[in-house]
Structures are given as structure tokens and as C-alpha cells.
Amino acid sequence: MRDYQDEVVHSKVASWIHFLGTLPSGEFDNKSQWVRSGLVLNWAPTSSGSRNRVTLICFEPPPAFWLVINRLYKSADWEDILSEPYLLVNMAFEAWYRLVDENAWKVLDLARESEKAS
């Protein structure tokens, strides 16, 4: 009979996320641009007392993601990722949200300008 703890120690966890959306091109010309990004998070829990092995591969990440990763790298808390690797996924979601939010405000500004001109 296998012990549950033994299975957890020798298992690997992989997550794959793909973000695909359209953002306005910046003008009222009915054009938009496709934005895509993705990540693969692979981590292997290890026995207590050892560090987890965590690998993150990003495809076309938004610029905000690099800022967050750089800030994490320079902080004293970077080792939190080893025990909670899904924090990296949370950082990616925050960067994607920031990208969409910035573009939503740009659309709102364009709509205001269009209303003023009418």
C-alpha cells in the first residue's frame, strides 16, 4: 500500500493559461489589435524541509508582468514562491488586468473626446 504523503512528494503539478483578447487600436476606425499571452507553471512539491522546484515559462507577457517579477526578485520575500507557486499566476492575472484596464480607460477618453466634438 502506498502512503498518500509519498505520492504528494513525488508528484508534479503543471498549469497552463492562455490569455487572448482584443484591444482598441487607439482610434475610432473600427480596428483592434489582438493581444495574447500565456504561461506554463510547473512545480514539484518535495518532502518537508526541502524547497519545491518551480519553473515558470511566459509567452509574450505584458510589460507590467516584468515589473512585478523584477520587484519580486529584488525583494526579501522571493522565496515565498517556492512554497506558494500560484503567486506567480496571480501576478500574471494582475498584469493582464492592468493591460485591459488601461485600454478601457483609453476607450473612455476617446468616447469623451468624440462626444465633445459632436
Structural summary, described in words:
The protein is an alpha+beta fold and 118 residues long. The chain has one domain (4-117). 46% of the residues lie in helices and 27% in strands. It contains 4 helices and 3 strands. Helix 2 (63-74) packs across helix 4. The protein is elongated, with a radius of gyration of 20 Å. The N and C termini lie far apart (76 Å). Residues 1-9 have low confidence and may be disordered.
Pick out its properties.
single chain; 118 residues; 3-stranded antiparallel β-sheet; 4 helices; 27% strand; elongated; disordered N terminus
Class based on secondary structure composition and strand pairing: alpha+beta
Total helical elements = 4
> How many extended strands?
3
The level of helicity is 40-55%
Distance between the termini: 76 Å
How many domains would you count in the coordinates?
A: 1
Radius of gyration: 20 Å
* N to C succession of SSEs: HEEEHHH
Question: Roughly what is the average pLDDT, rounded to an integer?
Answer: 83
Biggest pleated-sheet summary: 3 strands, antiparallel
Strand content: 25-35%
Instruction: State the low-pLDDT regions, or none.
Output: 1-9
Strand order of the largest sheet: 1-2-3
Tell me, what's the shape? elongated
